[in-house]
Design brief:
Elements: H1 3-8, E1 39-40, E2 45-46, H2 48-60, H3 81-96, H4 103-110, E3 112-113, H5 114-117, H6 123-126, H7 134-155, H8 157-178, E4 183-184, H9 188-204, H10 210-223, H11 232-251, H12 258-275, H13 277-282
Antiparallel strand pairs: 1-2, 3-4
Length: 284
C-alpha cells in the first residue's frame, strides 16, 4: 500500500470526521473513530451510534436488576492515561532514589548492566525508571508527555505501551551488544522509540514530519557531543526499534490484520531477546 492509497482509503479516517486520521476501531461496528468519537468500554471503545443503540437496548429491557455502566463523555477517551501513568511511576521511582540508605539500593537493582541482565532480566526495561539527575528526568518526562499526548490517542493505549516497552528493550539490547560493560540509566531509549515511531507513522499517513526530523537530528548531535556522557547505544537502539514498530503499526492497521500485527510484535520481542545471546559468545 502506497502513501497515496493510505490517504485516500476512508477506512483510515474517522467515519464521522473524514479529515481526522486514526488507528482505533469501534469494537462493535469496526469503523474507524477519532478520539472525540470514542467512548471507553470495559474492553475497547465504541462509536456514538453503537453507544446509542446499546443504551436503547438496555432501556427496552425491564429486568428486575439492571447493571449500568457509568456514562462517560466521549472526549475522556482522548486522555493519554498510559502516558500520564508512565510519567507518574517514573517520577515516583526517582523520588524513592533520593531517600538516604534506600535510594542507592533501588537504583542499583533497576539500572541496566549487561552481565546482570541474564539473571535479572527486569533490568532490560526497569532502566527507564532510573535517572541520574533532576534535569535528566525532567527532559525525558517532558518528551514522554509531549510525544505521548499525540501518539497514544492515535495508536490506542495497548499499542502505545507496547511501543514504549519494546523501544526500551531495544535500547538495552544494543547497549549489551556494543557496550557490554556500561551501566545505563534513563528512559531515553524508550523516548527515542516514540520519536522513531512518530516519524515513520507520520511519513506513512502523509503528515509533515519536518519538525520530528529536526528534533531527531538535534538529539543525535547532542548524543555524540564530546563529554556528553550519554549512552548513545540506548538512544539508537530505542529509535531503530521504535521506527520498526511504527512501520508495523502503519502497515497492519486493518482489523483483519490484527493477528498479524500481534505476531510481528512478538517476533520483534523474540528477536531482541535472541540478540542478547551474542555478547555471551563474543565477550566470554
Amino acid at each position: 500500500m502506497t502513501d497515496a492509497d493510505f490517504r485516500t482509503n476512508p477506512d483510515n479516517y474517522c467515519y464521522r470526521h473524514p479529515d481526522r486520521q486514526s488507528f482505533v476501531l469501534c469494537q462493535r461496528c469496526l469503523r474507524t473513530i477519532c478520539p472525540e468519537c470514542q467512548t471507553q468500554m470495559p474492553v475497547g471503545v465504541i462509536c456514538p451510534e453503537c453507544l446509542a443503540e446499546q443504551k436503547g437496548a438496555q432501556q427496552s429491557q425491564r429486568a428486575a436488576t439492571v447493571t449500568r455502566m457509568p456514562r462517560r463523555r466521549a472526549a475522556q477517551s482522548d486522555k493519554p492515561l498510559v502516558t500520564y501513568g508512565l510519567v507518574i511511576v517514573t517520577s515516583v521511582f526517582y523520588l524513592i532514589g533520593l531517600i538516604p540508605g534506600v535510594g542507592a539500593a533501588v537504583r542499583s537493582a533497576l539500572v541496566f548492566y549487561a552481565p546482570l541482565a541474564y539473571t535479572e532480566p527486569w533490568r532490560l526495561v526497569t532502566v527507564t525508571l532510573v535517572h541520574t539527575s533532576i534535569w535528566h528526568i525532567v527532559l525525558n518526562m517532558l518528551a514522554l508527555w509531549a510525544l505521548g499526548r499525540s501518539l497514544e490517542p492515535l495508536l490506542g493505549r495497548g499499542r502505545f505501551l507496547t511501543l514504549y516497552l519494546l523501544s526500551a528493550l531495544g535500547g538495552s539490547v544494543l547497549t549489551a551488544l556494543l557496550a557490554p560493560t556500561s551501566v545505563v540509566a534513563g528512559a531515553s531509549g524508550a523516548v527515542w522509540g516514540l520519536l522513531g515511531a512518530m516519524f515513520v507513522i507520520g511519513r506513512h499517513i502523509g503528515a509533515n514530519v519536518t519538525a520530528i526530523a529536526v528534533l531527531l537530528g538535534l538529539n543525535l548531535l547532542i548524543t555524540f557531543l564530546p563529554g556528553s556522557n550519554i549512552a548513545w547505544q540506548a538512544h539508537i537502539g530505542g529509535g531503530l526499534v521504535g521506527a520498526l514498530i511504527g512501520f508495523i503499526f502503519a502497515r497492519t492497521r486493518a482489523i483483519r490484520q490484527r493477528r498479524t500485527q500481534i505476531w510481528l510484535l512478538v517476533a520483534v520481542a523474540a528477536g531482541l531477546l535472541a540478540l542478547l545471546a551474542v555478547p555471551l559468545l563474543v565477550y566470554r
